[in-house]
């Protein structure tokens, strides 16, 4: 499959923001600080030390350190991990200075593939059994780390899932609403039932300071996958089809059936724009609920009220954001994740660590701490700490294709600019679908 031209060494500001909302917020924690040895560059071959730089810190880094201890004890390899919230900038500067770590754990695939195409990162075919990986990974995940010619430079070691609907468990159950809608059309009918019972069906908030609008882009991405499938989705991301293509406009209009229909969203369009995304689901847990359904990533549970988090399984239910009847015949999942890549494939110890990080058994300890989902469909979901996370893990494992967040992969001018602002203008009704998609298309860089 032809891969997108990512242009992402210039993505610093956008990725710092968005990564914190996706892969970087899997557990709602982490200060991005250093954990473990870290230090000033790649280690010597055969010295017993493997240096890793990644984007997770705080409690996530602590869980990573705990996870790798048994491997270190068994292998005799000292893994020194450094976490930084400014991963994109740090890794790029280290490459330019010739001071790379042995392994980088990339929260965004774009920079990884660019570095791979520049010859800085080794293709995983050089040191991993990719055929074996494909047998256990969620379909489509290896594509995320592939360059223009299909060469794969990174192996997934963690995923985040966005194709989810969260609801207040007791109120939703008492209302008799289904948690197994067969299609988006059926989900809209459920929304109509909720509205008839006097509650706004949807909890949606775009507010995110300078990144306001990213929640809306996620909705469009969900519809692009479900209406047109992964092939068209990839063409959209790579600009093989223009942003104002009729297929893209169809996704906007289909989402409009939810967000623009009177009474569907708590507070209407103005509330959507002004409500912080982290607070959008809070009214669902009031008595009576102020709204009922929230389509969001699995990280959103870290923003629920503390009493809800403390009793997550009793308070929250979650189900798959369904297919679109008449659209793509499959079960796609939208999300993000972390990809491990080797800067030192000639070092046997680095390769052993890469085999461990990308293996289907990695994460058995981390899974129990929370904040981690396996990219392998074969992972034992009973190891996750609660039923809510187990359900999310099963949704990911049952996907027939996984695709990374499109706005994160598009050029900064679009994915972190015109697409965000366009969603705000379109949702409020200030601009039509045609106007917004044409303006976003015009903002796409020419080179």
UniProtKB/TrEMBL annotation:
Q: Name one Pfam family in it.
A: SBP_bac_1
Signal peptide segment: 1-19
Note the coiled coil stretches, chain numbering: none
Check the record and name the InterPro entries matching this protein.
Bact_solute-bd_prot1 (IPR050490), SBP (IPR006059)
Keyword Chloroplast included in the entry's annotation: no
What are the alphabetically sorted keywords of the record?
A: Signal, Transport
* Statement: the UniProt record of this protein carries the keyword Zinc-finger: no
What is the similarity comment for this entry? Answer: Belongs to the bacterial solute-binding protein 1 family.
Q: What is this protein called?
A: ABC transporter substrate-binding protein
Which organism does this record belong to?
Nocardioides jiangsuensis
Its organism's taxonomic lineage begins at: Bacteria, Bacillati, Actinomycetota, Actinomycetes, Propionibacteriales
């Amino acid at each position: 499959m032809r891969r997108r031209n990512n242009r992402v060494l210039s993505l610093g500001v956008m990725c710092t923001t968005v990564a914190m909302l996706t892969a970087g917020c899997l557990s709602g924690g982490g200060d991005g600080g250093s954990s473990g040895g870290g230090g000033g560059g790649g280690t010597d071959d055969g010295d017993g030390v493997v240096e890793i730089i990644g984007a997770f810190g705080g409690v996530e880094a602590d869980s990573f350190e705990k996870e790798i201890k048994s491997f270190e004890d068994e292998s005799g390899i000292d893994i020194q991990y450094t976490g930084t919230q400014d991963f994109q900038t740090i890794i790029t500067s280290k490459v330019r200075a010739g001071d790379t770590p042995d392994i980088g754990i990339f929260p965004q695939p774009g920079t990884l593939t660019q570095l791979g195409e520049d010859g800085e990162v080794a293709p995983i075919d050089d040191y991993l059994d990719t055929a074996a990986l494909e047998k256990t990974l969620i379909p489509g995940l290896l594509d995320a780390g592939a360059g223009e010619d299909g060469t794969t430079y990174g192996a997934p070691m963690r995923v985040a899932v966005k194709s989810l609907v969260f609801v207040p468990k007791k109120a939703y159950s008492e209302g008799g609403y289904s948690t197994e809608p067969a299609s988006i059309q059926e989900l809209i009918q459920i929304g109509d039932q909720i509205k008839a019972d006097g509650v706004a069906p949807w909890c949606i908030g775009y507010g995110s300071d300078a990144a306001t609008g990213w929640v809306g882009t996620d909705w469009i991405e969900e519809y692009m996958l479900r209406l047109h499938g992964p092939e068209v989705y990839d063409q959209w991301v790579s600009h093989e089809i223009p942003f104002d293509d009729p297929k893209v406009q169809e996704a906007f209009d289909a989402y409009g059936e939810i967000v623009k229909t009177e009474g569907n969203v708590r507070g209407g369009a103005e509330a959507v724009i002004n409500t912080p995304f982290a607070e959008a689901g809070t009214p669902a847990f009031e008595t009576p609920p102020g709204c009922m359904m929230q389509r969001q990533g699995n990280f959103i549970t870290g923003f629920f009220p503390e009493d809800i988090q403390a009793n997550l399984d009793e308070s929250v239910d979650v189900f798959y954001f369904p297919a679109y009847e008449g659209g793509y015949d499959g079960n796609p999942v939208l999300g993000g994740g972390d990809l491990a890549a080797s800067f030192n494939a000639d070092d046997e110890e680095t390769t052993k660590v890469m085999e461990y990080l990308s293996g289907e058994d990695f994460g058995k300890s981390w899974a129990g701490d929370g904040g981690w989902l396996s990219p392998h469909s074969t992972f034992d979901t009973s190891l996750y700490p609660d039923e809510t996370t187990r359900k999310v893990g099963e949704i990911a494992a049952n996907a027939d294709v996984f695709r990374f967040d499109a706005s994160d992969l598009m050029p900064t001018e679009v994915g972190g600019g015109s697409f965000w602002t366009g969603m705000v203008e379109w949702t409020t009704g200030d601009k039509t679908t045609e106007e917004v998609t044409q303006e976003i298309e015009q903002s796409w860089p020419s080179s």
